[in-house]
Design brief:
The protein is mainly α. The protein has one domain (7-84). The chain has three helices and no strands. It has helices at 7-19, 25-62, 69-84. The longest helix is centred in the middle third of the chain and has 38 residues, at 25-62.
Length: 85
Amino acid sequence: MNISLTPELEALVEEKVKSGLYTSASEVVREALRLLVRLDEVRQRELAELNRAIDEGLAQAEQGRVVDAGESRRRSRAALKRASS
């Protein structure tokens, strides 16, 4: 497989090999791809959690468990104050 890199990315790969942390450009690319897989997994977990939170919020709204904007701001400010203390 042949891969074209921008000059900036090529310089980065060469820098990593010269640093001695990697023995070849292929090793740098393999490590980068492994990290990309891990990042994708983290994003998927975060997206799933966001979707769960949205579903929970929608369910609460359907049950009438809502607060007006003023109360929401008050609660947010109180939480920020507690967090900064």
